[in-house]
Amino acid sequence: MADEVVSRNFIEQIIDKDLEEGKYEKIITRFPPEPNGYLHIGHAKSILLNYGLAVKYGGQFNLRFDDTNPTKEKEEFVQSIVEDVKWLGADFRNEILFASNYFDKMYEAAIKLIKKGKAYVCDLSADEIREYRGTLKEPGKNSPYRDRSVEENLKLFEEMKDGVYADGEKVLRAKIDMSSPNINMRDPIIYRIARMTHHNTGDKWCIYPMYDFAHPIEDAIEGVTHSICTLEFEDHRPLYDWVVTELEYPHPPKQIEFAKLYLTNVVTGKRYIKKLVDDGIVDGWDDPRLVTLSALRRRGYTPEAIRRFMELSGVSKANSSSDNAMLEYCVREDLKPKADRVMGVIDPVKVVIDNYPEDMTEEFEIENNPDNPDAGTRKVSFSRELYVERDDFMEEPPKKYFRLFPGNEVRLKGAYFVKCVGFDKDDNGNVTTVHVTYDPETRSGSGFEGRKVKGTIHWVDARTAVNAEVRLYENIVDEEKGKLNDDGSLNLNPNSLTVLSDAKLEACLMGAKAGDTFQFIRDGYFCVDSKDSSDEKLVFNRVVGLKSSYKPQ
Ligand code: ATP
Ligand code: MG
Prior knowledge:
This protein is α/β, with parallel strands linked by helices. It has helices at residues 10-20, 41-56, 75-88, 103-115, 126-133, 150-161, 211-222, 237-246, 270-278, 293-299, 303-313, 324-335, and strands at 28-31, 60-65, 96-98, 119-122, 171-174, 189-193, 207-209, 226-230, 254-258, 261-263, 320-322, 340-342, 344-345, 348-353, 361-367, 377-383, 385-389, 409-412, 417-425, 431-438, 456-457, 460-461, 466-473, 497-505, 517-520, 524-528, 538-545. The chain has a 7-stranded mixed β-sheet. A 7-stranded mixed β-sheet has the order 21-18-19-20-14-17-22, with no helix packed on it. A 4-stranded antiparallel β-sheet has the order 4-5-6-7. Helix 8 links the parallel strand 8 and strand 9. Helix 7 (211-222) crosses helix 8 (237-246) and helix 11 crosses helix 12 (324-335). The chain starts with 9 loop residues before the first helix and ends in an 8-residue tail after the last strand. Mean pLDDT is 94; it is low at 1-5.
């Protein structure tokens, strides 16, 4: 895939200009997750965008936890986020930054604003503050506490910090403009009282800064130059600028917004994913049907495929949806040269070669990967009893069915031609065994040219077959039928998971380890599950099928 993305995205254009004008010397970007859930494919966009810019401009990329709201944050999420960012290959020098480490500096910043007459302690209740705020059409009203003296504000704010007041009794507000057309500028709250134990600072603080105040300070402290966030923060930018200007940072960071990544047929909202997990509809945050990064990793997606997908989907200012089929295309392309091709029969039916000697076995040499000459070859065993896919046999075939049916001859991949001479059924009418005869003349590699057959099917030697469970996935929601039901719940696809517990795989898969990926020829790419697979019971996830509905431009 040599098609380099040559046109510079709008963020690069801004950075180029800033560098030209000498605004910054070194570009510093950051990814600022809130540790309140697992990362998903949308976050990967933000990570790779920020990291990519740092690399491109020889700058620095920071991983900083935005942990200013202790209610929802957990250590478990910090661990998983660190792992995911590493997995994607975004290098943060193993330096994990926490916004909560800057609480002292944020407190000092608040004092600075108070001293400048730019912040005040307000005693209005939450409801009153809302009432005073006004609406989109009407300006707000000044708080009666707005004109407190600097001394009084300093004293009250210190008392807020020292735990003199109850939660919610007072807040610190920026003094900006209650009649601003932008509601975010109508004296926003910048500190609140909340007695909560913080995962990092414990009970040291009973006041916590609000996001819109904390975030620009975090960026400025780290020397971030371009603070890249998603579009919903566009209306908050004037407040971001106000904070960094009033605090007089010498090289104030600049906020730039881009459109979130949306994917068709998948659930990206943290809220929805959490609900699927909490309701037990999926097997945890890493259920391979989800698009959390841990789920994609478990399913067998590669960081390279995700990076490629982000390149193809681009960076934009306008909301749009990317095609899930494009992500699948990217992983297929990435795995093509990497994954050895093996024979795996996921829904087996037995085949007996009636004219093949009972105690005979042979070995065929098969290429490991025609797309990668370095992958070499392997020996595959063959004997009288084999397995083939159940749907590679039909008692009464439709037109253009070239596989096994009574009287038809097919090629067993890499071995012999066999002709179907009969079949057995059980009492329920299910086919239990397909009988064939083979023609020794047609041995693969013998140069046989006597006749041609139209179908080639894969097979596994029953004597050496490895048992496995195979899990097939479909989209968890079907967008064409509507992602949401009328009541707002997710419209789930009942076929999102199919478990085939009796798969028969080629002997070389014995001992395959978590994360190992193979192509099962004619079907798709399969990855050994990292949670449920063991030496006793192999479990494979289908990463993606071979057939694509996506057409690269
Ligand atoms: P929450 O609703 O809890 O805020 P969030 O998905 O915004 O969820 P954060 O941890 O705040 O989670 O996000 C970290 C960063 O990832 C933010 O800069 C955010 O803008 C970005 N981000 C989140 N979702 C997407 C998405 N779908 N596409 C691109 N970037 C995203
Ligand atoms: Mg967020």
